[in-house]
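A common beginner's mistake is to predict each chain separately and then try to dock the pieces by hand. The better habit, illustrated here, is to supply every component at once so that their relative placement is modeled jointly.
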Amino acid sequence: MSTQSIDRRKGRDEVSSFQKWLRNNRRVLTSAAFLVVMLIAFTLANPSVFTQFKTYRAVMIALPISIFLVVPLVFVVTAGEIDLAFPAIVGMASYGFASIIDVGGNPLLALIAALAIGLLLGFVNGIFVVQFGLSALIATLGMNFLLRGLINIGAEGFSIALPEIRGTLFHTLLTGTTFGIPNQMFWALGFAIIGFLLYNFHKFGVHVHCVGDHPGSAQEMGINVKRTRIMVFVFSGLGAAFAGVFSVMINFVWWPTTGDGLLLPVLAGIFVGGTPAWGGIGTVLGGVFGVSIVSFIETGVIAAGLTGFFTQFFYGIIIISSLIGHRLNGERVR
Amino acid sequence: MSEYIIELRNVTKSFGNVNAVDGVSLAIKRGEVVGLIGDNGAGKSTLIKVLSGVHKPDSGEIYLRGEKVNHWDSAKSRHSGIETVYQDRALAVQQSITRNIFMGREIQNRFGFVDVKKQYQEANRLMREIGFTSKVFDPESPVATLSGGERQGVAIARALYYDADLIILDEPTTALSLTETNKVFSFIENVRAQGRSIIFIGHNIYHVYDIAERFIVLDRGQVVLTSDKSEVPSAEHLIKTMHDIARMGHAEMKGAA
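With all components supplied together, the output reads:
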């Protein structure tokens, strides 16, 4: 508390408000810069592809699915947890959605049912981790197998095709096109903005930060730590349900494997986006940039004239180099 | 209304086979400064965590301003006008000073959104009051950039913010410099002058003797001595009594008259 001793301490010079802004937003700025640099590199490698709007539109068809997943997962990781069950929750929620429409049910009803499935399964994950004290890593991994197993038992390998929803108002609203941009992009960005506001300015987001930073302190200050931890899993389930619904609406088909391929790219997107694995801090918008980076890699690698065999290699390069970038740009404080 | 802010009756709290708090009854009056002392492992920290709601007692009763409390936790304790400065300071070091000051009691609208601007202004004002005049950090600075004394300042500022009736200070001067320790003492004088109560837990018996007007001595989870300052002629006397307690398990206050 002594002011003389404060000013003499090394590396604590007075900073301008711009520097403060940089300091407070450096993680999201790093991931945004990374996305820009990567796009410039791809454009230089193949100008004809990356100067065309349709390249970006192609990415924006499926990117929203990852955005619906990454936004709540940033909350999960910030709270010091992990959720590996989201691919199977995507599968379960979309299974319910597609089944209801398949038997002639109202799409809105099907949507509500899918969201309820997502919330419920997220809650079950939360109960396993928080009330039973299981490791989040292992419990949600187990749940991912369990739920995918139930899907396989129920569907017996059959997919559900829904060509009849093409052209309906529900389809136009959710996954039509506005000014050449797939509508799902607007929904996903709306979801991301709500997530951003919750994360930074709502009591829930603030509590998620404090719980992930130091659960003991949060408890001592009267935050309901258990409820906060359960709620991040519930939120993750909600995002997975939205992702599942949009996946079906984009493809007009539900497969028993729906959601399966999302696990690693979306997880990578969280960390590439600047949310560290140790909890307490993170960035929702960075997560959106992170999954965008991952989504553009495949397109970029092919467009640059390399074969698809190079895709995984570049995933690796970009994940590792972005993590090094975040580390160089900001020291770990705990 | 009762003359006591909070009262414990026959409270016990065990961890496994260890009876950390073993049938403690005590009451804190309005406007008094109580020194809670005892050797390591006597149960001081557990006892204050019962008072602050972190630990639920296994048995016994808690009375708040004369009324029996059925459901007791940290949030309830804080809303009842009890603020605690914990030994570990209870900070989330990656978060800003502002977020730490309002942790668990955010200024929010009815939709649960935090009034960031108001919190910033209040944190700024509090920091000036507590003596943070440096321009090196501001309310948005992460607590991790502060020194130990400054962190203690944040923890105390937080306790000050909500005109609490009772402030519990668990080892507030541990690891502080002399100047910083003096700041804590003048803080306690201010709080006392405002007619609020303090429970002061300390290892340094001289500190406790100077500050407190009543002493509660704990040993192996039990209250072995409650004594007004008038009954204790000096800090040395208090220390000798503590030695007797450690040796014999009990003590009598002799020679005070």
